[in-house]
């Protein structure tokens, strides 16, 4: 073939390729394709994860309701004025703030402040909730005329913290909170401890509950001559497990505690002995009324715990501080014994939280279960039972035509009997339908062809053993349920 003619063919072929490419990329502009991703510290949850998470939520919810608590929900976002100042300086830094809508720069008025925190307040009026307790206090004050006190509520919703993502620490996570407000009785604390005991027994997680009292910590601050540094002391002590004693002491020194005060604190942080021996030592150290009252409350709680013979392991931990500023009495923290992870439940007594919103003398106490950490613990220890996977139990093979309708009628009765069932939507190859059942771990397959339709039966195949049985509908239901 002459070169000139060959060049013409090559040119025409190249033009066709270019036209095809132009049509292809007309709807797929490479420059505009965004690689799908989610923000760090957040997670997608597939079907298996959601079923298992719901198992946790359902277990917790049932226990909450058994103790007389009722559900409420609050908005994902609150006014920043509601959130700021309730969690201490470190907590405030972890608040996700929401930009005002529209031209937020112009609407800020004066030039933006050079200080980042103050500038944020000029352009942000709302924020994502940091926890469920402060919104609950706001709710109580706002709806007080509608509530019956003591008011017992539970809440299962996500919260957000602008924290550094790491193992067991997320920026978006679920909390399962249970609180009672409007009562000073220590029976409320006892019942919360019983709830912890029951929840973790049902979830089969081996845990230890650590118990302390903020009044005791206040008494310690007074005893070492640093009462004005109670917040600094509690924030620093709360990090003891994470950063160690030397770093805690260094932080206390940076906060302005004297060397003498820090030295007096050491025997308390290192205190050993039985629970009773610790109480006797504290009685001699804490001379203030506040400190003595904290010891009284702790001893009362332990007397109830001992009398109720809980299976839960409860320890007195004088280094437990719970960094949040609003706690005023008993404080709790629960850790899994068999997994290295942070606390999976925490809480305590707060006397002044509703007072911030204008409702005084309304003491409350509550605890929060960290659903995401509980999920991680149960996954790592393989604790989810088989019934925590609410998968399809029976797949009906689709043969099409009259057989399809027969299957649909039988499937309706099987579903009415409480069995999860589905039918393959297309009358396609048997191999494809059986492969679908296998990949989804569906334990039984129902075959309803002409023979079954005319005989008013079902052929049930056990996918684990390969055994097939021709059964009546009633017998098929009994087999699957068994």
Q: What percent of residues are in strands?
A: 15-25%
Number of beta strands: 16
* Low-confidence blocks of residues: none
Strand order in the largest sheet: 1-5-6-11-10-9-7-8
Query: Major beta sheet, specifics?
Result: 8 strands, mixed
Keywords:
alpha+beta, elongated, 19 helices, single chain, five-stranded mixed β-sheet, eight-stranded mixed β-sheet, 482 residues, 45% helix
TL;DR of this structure?
The chain is α+β, with helices and mostly antiparallel strands. It has helices at 3-26, 47-66, 80-83, 88-93, 104-107, 116-123, 133-142, 187-203, 214-223, 230-237, 240-254, 259-269, 275-285, 289-308, 371-380, 401-416, 430-439, 450-455, 473-481, and strands at 70-71, 77-79, 97-99, 124-128, 151-160, 172-181, 207-213, 313-316, 330-336, 345-350, 364-370, 394-396, 421-423, 444-447, 458-462, 468-471.
Describe what this molecule looks like in 3D.
The structure is a single chain. The chain is an alpha+beta fold and 482 residues long. The chain is 45% helix and 17% strand. The chain is built from 19 helices and 16 strands. Strand 12, helix 16 and strand 13 form a beta-alpha-beta unit.
Helix-strand layout with pairing:
Layout: H1 3-26, H2 47-66, E1 70-71, E2 77-79, H3 80-83, H4 88-93, E3 97-99, H5 104-107, H6 116-123, E4 124-128, H7 133-142, E5 151-160, E6 172-181, H8 187-203, E7 207-213, H9 214-223, H10 230-237, H11 240-254, H12 259-269, H13 275-285, H14 289-308, E8 313-316, E9 330-336, E10 345-350, E11 364-370, H15 371-380, E12 394-396, H16 401-416, E13 421-423, H17 430-439, E14 444-447, H18 450-455, E15 458-462, E16 468-471, H19 473-481
Parallel strand pairs: 1-5, 7-8, 12-13, 12-14
Antiparallel strand pairs: 2-4, 3-4, 5-6, 6-11, 7-9, 9-10, 10-11, 14-15, 15-16
């Amino acid at each position: 073939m002459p070169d000139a003619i060959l060049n013409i063919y090559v040119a025409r072929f190249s033009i066709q390729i270019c036209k095809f490419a132009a049509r292809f990329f007309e709807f797929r502009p490479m420059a505009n394709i965004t690689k799908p991703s989610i923000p760090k510290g957040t997670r997608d949850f597939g079907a298996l994860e959601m079923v298992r998470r719901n198992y946790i939520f359902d277990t917790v919810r049932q226990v909450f309701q058994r103790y007389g608590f009722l559900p409420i929900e609050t908005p994902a976002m609150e006014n920043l004025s509601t959130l700021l100042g309730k969690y201490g300086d470190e907590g405030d830094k972890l608040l996700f703030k929401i930009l005002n809508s529209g031209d937020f720069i112009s609407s800020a008025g004066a030039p933006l402040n050079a200080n980042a925190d103050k500038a944020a307040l000029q352009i942000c009026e709302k924020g994502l909730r940091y926890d469920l307790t402060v919104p609950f206090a706001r709710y109580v004050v706002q709806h007080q005329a509608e509530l019956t006190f003591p008011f017992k509520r539970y809440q299962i919703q996500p919260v957000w913290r602008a924290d550094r993502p790491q193992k067991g620490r997320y920026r978006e996570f679920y909390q399962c909170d249970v609180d009672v407000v409007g009562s000073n009785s220590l029976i409320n604390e006892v019942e919360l401890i019983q709830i912890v005991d029951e929840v973790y027994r049902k979830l089969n997680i081996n845990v230890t509950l650590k118990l302390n009292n903020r009044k005791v910590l206040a008494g310690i601050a007074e005893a070492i001559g640093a009462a004005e540094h109670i917040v600094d002391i509690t924030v620093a002590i709360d990090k003891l497990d994470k950063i160690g004693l030397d770093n805690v002491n260094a932080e206390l020194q940076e906060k302005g505690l004297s060397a003498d005060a820090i030295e007096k604190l050491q025997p308390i942080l290192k205190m050993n002995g039985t629970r009773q021996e610790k109480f006797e030592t504290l009685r001699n150290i804490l001379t203030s009324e506040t400190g003595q009252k904290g010891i009284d409350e702790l001893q009362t709680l332990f007397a109830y715990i001992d009398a109720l013979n809980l299976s839960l392991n409860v320890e007195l931990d004088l280094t437990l501080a719970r960094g949040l500023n609003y706690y005023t009495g008993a404080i709790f923290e629960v850790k899994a014994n068999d997994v290295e992870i942070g606390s999976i439940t925490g809480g305590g007594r707060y006397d002044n939280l509703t007072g911030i919103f204008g409702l005084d003398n309304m003491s409350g106490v509550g605890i929060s279960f960290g659903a995401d950490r509980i999920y991680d613990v149960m996954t790592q220890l393989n604790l989810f039972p088989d019934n925590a996977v609410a998968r399809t139990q029976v797949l009906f093979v689709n043969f099409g035509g009259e057989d399809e309708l027969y299957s649909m009628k039988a499937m309706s009765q099987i579903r009415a009997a409480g069995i999860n069932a589905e039918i393959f939507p297309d009358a396609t190859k048997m191999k494809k339908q059986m492969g679908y059942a296998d990949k989804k771990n569906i334990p039984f397959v129902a075959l309803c062809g002409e023979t079954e339709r005319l005989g008013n039966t079902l052929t049930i195949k056990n996918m684990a053993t390969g055994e097939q049985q021709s059964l009546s509908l009633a017998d098929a239901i009994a087999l699957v349920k068994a």
